[in-house]
Amino acid sequence: MRIGINGSGLLANPNLGVMHADIAAAEADGLKSYWLAQTGGVDALTVFASHGDTNSELELGTAVIPTWVTHPQVMAGQALTTQAAVGGRLVLGLGLAHEPSVTERWKMKWERPVRQMIDYLDIIQPLIADGKVEHDGYFWSFAGEMPKFDGPAPKVMIAALGEQMLRLAGKRTDGTILWCVGPKTVEQHIAPIINEAADKAGRDKPSIVCSIPVWVTDNPEPAREFLGQILSVYAELPSYRRVLDIEGLHGLGDLSIVGSEDEVAEGIAAVAAAGATDFTAVPMGADPDEIARTRAAILAAN
Prior knowledge:
This protein is α/β, with parallel strands linked by helices. 46% of the residues lie in helices and 20% in strands. It has helices at residues 16-28, 44-51, 72-85, 99-105, 113-130, 163-172, 183-200, 220-230, 238-247, 252-255, 261-274, 288-300; strands spanning 2-6, 33-36, 59-62, 65-66, 90-95, 132-136, 141-145, 155-158, 175-179, 207-216, 257-259, 278-283. Helix 3 (72-85) links the parallel strand 4 and strand 5. It is globular.
């Protein structure tokens, strides 16, 4: 299993220099990937593009960009430009977001979400691969060509938790990016469905990117309580609630990998044994010592 960092914790107090330094540290440490969510006032693709091509093999992935608010032709241009800027390391992670975001924040209608993602892939994948597409869809349409940079197209993954989205991910994309998912859910639900879909479509085994907070501490109970509080919203969203129920846990305080170095190592090993291909840790800590110990534990798993 490949080990990476999910740096989305930095988005609470965004600073471009700090983000660039965190990516550079992941490169220097020999980690396999670095991921950023698309939330608030930070554009993940711009962060990666401005970091640039550093002659590193570290993959740079968006986890994830919501599809409802950006036309796939525009997204294709942004992704191709970022891919050129970072030297071909981009993983374009896309997601449907959640009904409250769509209806309450963006004042849009939530309907047929799987169909929306199918339309999106029907446009963006041919565009980034060949520079042309003709698609008349239910949600998204585009007919035309566009010049594009030389070089390979970025990988495309989607956030998939339900059966329909997992089958779509396996059939059409390079894999799925997970949140609020633990080893039991990966083994019993995620991996069997997405791998079967990829196999039936004659595609390579897809990536299963599992992201979980990690915290090395001698006081695990207060740490779990803190994580449960600051991340409580995820336990209430229906799509996350369903996978947390499979796991048999209430929320992120219970799901997070918290404890001694040995306990963290065991938690990460359990994710690997369940069938995840990638683990992207969200590093946590209450003080510099815990942060340093957490980082060391993550690197020891690499």
